[in-house]
Amino acid sequence: MLRFLLNRIAVLLPTFIGVTIISFLFIRLLPGDPIELLAGERGVTPERHAQLMHMMGFDKPIWQQYLTFVGDVLQGDLGQSIVTKRPVFDEFFTLFPATLELSICAIIFAIAIGLPAGIIAAVRRGSVFDHTVMATALTGYSMPIFWWGLLLIIVFSGTLGWTPVSGRISFMFFFDQVTGFMLIDSLLSGQKGAFASAVEHLILPTIVLGTIPLAVIARQTRSAMLEVLGEDYVRTARAKGLPPSRVIGLHALRNAMIPVITTIGLQVGVLLAGAILTETIFSWPGVGKWMIDSVSRRDYPAVQGGLLLIASLVMLVNLTVDILYGLINPRIRHRR
Amino acid sequence: MPALLDIRNLSVTFETAQGPFRAVDQVDFSVDTGERLAIVGESGSGKSVAMLAVMGLLPKTATVTADVMAFNGHDLRQLDARSRRKIIGRDMSMIFQEPIASLNPCFTVGFQIGEALKTHLGLDRAARRKRSIELLEAVGIPEPAQRLSAFPHQLSGGMSQRVMIAMAISCQPKLLIADEPTTALDVTIQAQILELLINLQKDTGMALVLITHDMGVVAETAERVVVQYAGQQVERQSIRGLFEAPHHPYTAALLAALPERAGRGRLPQIPGVVPGLGDQPDGCLFNPRCGYADDRCRRVVPPRTGPELGEALCHYPINGEEAA
Ligand SMILES: Nc1ncnc2c1ncn2[C@@H]1O[C@H](COP(=O)(O)OP(=O)(O)OP(=O)(O)O)[C@@H](O)[C@H]1O
Ligand code: SF4
Ligand SMILES: [Mg+2]
């Protein structure tokens, strides 16, 4: 197991180096630079521009800038935002709980619906339920997030007036950030109605962000279950006289979960990409929206640092998934 | 006393994309307590399907019909799913052809054996462990206590089949159905597993239905034999009668393919294959491969002969003249 872990980590190293290069280059490939955008309409004289670029070290050759960046990263320093002058690291982790809360809700939503839907569709293969699930999953998967978000806002916030349009909680409530998770903080605040307001604000973003993972999980679960249900050991389980709940819910599901867990893990990357759009639609104050804002301001340190942090988190999640995978699949755990 | 397992006129039809396919056609089985019955036939002759029908393990695409389908006083046709689950795995159990694939890779040996003990006998954890160790000992697994925590991928094919057997006999069944239990194993292991099955059968007094396509296995293990071809029972005999005087040409061909009968040199194989979906001939189903076939065989479905002719399903049973 330890060996297996070390192996996994060794594989991640080159990926990490690749990520530093990409996150560094990406923002510099876009036209415009931070000084120009900071100056805005007023403009800036070429002399002043050059002076500022020199101050921030952006006039050095690109490889030199990269090495400085990597050197700083290795010392745990991601630099400061050009706009707010706050450390990128702090900025990121102040906003991250909002993204995390939304992502967790979205993945729970996707698993809570996708997993049972996939299982039932497989068990009742060819039924109306199966066809409905498959058709819905295909639609959900191909739904453009932006369009889907706006549609939900128009129907549920506009026409029906059931849900709020944006933000994490109503302006009526104000309390200190304790955990950064609005659902928990609102409860801790003890203010009446705060929790309900937080929930209301979460519903639409959760659905929007969770739709694609839901579709993927439902389809993957169905196909994994279909494969597993035809296996000999499932017949053995039935031959033992076990009830269907145990045959399907334990013997088949445990095996089907092996590919499904990998799929869920891969959805984390999809989720973070989706969070960028979702947060923008719903003015959700998380890292996704912050990244978009930073890109449009050409805030080099914020973008490269933010991308690096996001990528590291995705890799961390994938590593966790690998470990989980090993735990659930004895054949991997015992491999020497 | 009625037979332990009494099956009459059992047919199984599968709904397939190319139309209905009758995999088992009007077969009869009767097995008494403590008896050993062999069902022999080539691949695709409906041996497994017939027994899966008895166990109630066929998919929904299968239609099962029978005049009588009784086990231990239960009418299997009338049983609802819940009552059937009380019987299978307890009084009637089955082991399969692919031992490695038949064990769940995600659970330990101990867990998989314990499951039946818990479901049917309600044993607690300690009692399950004790009984599981006894069972593993009984099927000849060394260091049984350690093996309880092994996962299937850590076992060889022979070991896996032993575990399957331990699982199947865990609730002291009255009937054990062994569906080609040795086909997937090495030759040396095959003999050991067969010996184990027979010893267990003798010790416990359970009935044993042994499915095989190997006449050699039949000779060593069974008391009575049913020869099955293309879903039909073409001959039913005692083991002695069958080996001394086979009556159906198919039985004779299977026996001629035995190494000790063929002498040195190549084994005479029966040319052709068992007809499957869509290529079933008119008349006798064996006629395309039968050396005795004539026009009548190709047109008219043969009748069932009497017990003196092994109940052979044939127009021209071998030794028909002497017996008549
Ligand atoms: N689920 C199914 N749907 C359609 N046809 C099936 C199904 N299961 C089995 N059959 C067909 O029924 C026939 C008999 O199959 P069966 O498995 O009983 O053969 P067998 O005698 O056990 O052969 P083997 O020695 O290969 O195990 C075969 O032609 C097979 O293709
Ligand atoms: S009926 Fe004819 S074809 Fe069929 S087994 Fe007998 S002799 Fe052969
Ligand atoms: Mg078979």
Q: Can you walk me through this structure?
A:
The complex is a heterodimer of chains A (336) and B (324). Chain A has 336 residues and is mostly helical. Chain A folds into 2 domains: 18-74, no CATH class; 92-297, MetI-like fold. Chain A contains 14 helices and no strands. Chain A has helices at residues 2-29, 34-39, 46-55, 62-74, 88-123, 128-142, 145-159, 182-189, 194-229, 232-239, 244-281, 287-296, 300-328, 330-333. Chain A is globular and about 85 Å long. The mean pLDDT of chain A is 87. The two termini of chain B are 32 Å apart. In chain B, helix 4 packs across helix 5 (125-138). Chain B contains 14 helices and 11 strands. Chain B has a domain at 5-222: P-loop containing nucleotide triphosphate hydrolases (Rossmann fold, 3-Layer(aba) Sandwich). Chain B is α/β, with parallel strands linked by helices. In chain B, 46% of the residues are buried. The A-B interface holds A 231-233, 235-243, 251, 254-255, 328-331, 334 and B 55, 57, 82, 84-90, 93-94, 96, 98, 101-107, 115-116, 119-120, 151, 153-154, 164, 167. The structure holds adenosine-5'-triphosphate, iron/sulfur cluster and magnesium ion.
In short, what is this structure?
Chain B: One of its GO terms (biological process) is transmembrane transport. Chain B: It holds the Pfam family ABC_tran. The complex is a heterodimer of chains A (336) and B (324). In chain A, 76% of the residues lie in helices and 0% in strands.
Ordered list of secondary-structure elements with their pairings:
The complex is a heterodimer of chains A (about 325) and B (about 325).
Chain A: H1 2-29, H2 34-39, H3 46-55, H4 62-74, H5 88-123, H6 128-142, H7 145-159, H8 182-189, H9 194-229, H10 232-239, H11 244-281, H12 287-296, H13 300-328, H14 330-333
Helix pairs in contact in A: 1-13, 5-6, 5-9, 5-11, 6-9, 7-9, 7-11, 8-9, 9-11, 10-11, 11-12, 11-13, 12-13
Chain B: E1 5-16, E2 19-31, E3 36-40, H1 47-55, E4 62-65, E5 68-71, E6 74-75, H2 81-87, E7 92-95, H3 99-102, H4 109-121, H5 125-138, H6 144-147, H7 157-168, E8 175-179, H8 187-204, E9 207-212, H9 215-221, E10 224-229, E11 232-238, H10 239-244, H11 249-256, H12 259-262, H13 295-299, H14 320-323
Parallel strand pairs in B: 3-9, 3-10, 7-8, 8-9
Antiparallel strand pairs in B: 1-2, 1-4, 1-5, 5-6, 10-11
Helix pairs in contact in B: 4-5, 4-7, 5-7, 7-8
The structure holds adenosine-5'-triphosphate (ATP), iron/sulfur cluster (SF4) and magnesium ion.
